[in-house]
Amino acid sequence: MTAINIFKGKCPNCKTGNIFSSNGNSILFRMPEMRKICKNCNYKFEVEPGFFYGAMFVSYALACAQMIACFVITWAILKIPIVYIFLSVVSIALLSSAFNFRLSRTIWMYLFYKKR
Fold this sequence. Notes:
Elements: H1 2-8, H2 55-77, H3 82-95, H4 97-111
Helix pairs in contact: 2-3, 2-4
């Protein structure tokens, strides 16, 4: 059940409030906007200044996994030329950036969640 709440971007405290007020759009270069507190339970999302610096490592791991999967699919299964493989890997990285931003911050919050 926790994994579903992470992918939906729900509050780690009440599991019903949304963490983000907008989803963002990678194509239009808009990053998701995060709320300061949960509307349902008043849970403060940013525990301390700089709390989400660690989420960059989670985002990096997600991006690497996506790019490796894209490389393996295009090279081993589809057997397309290397130039197109490079272009597909770069496009996957760019298009998934807003999703990775949301998911990495949510995972980071759930990792360090403490009932207050």
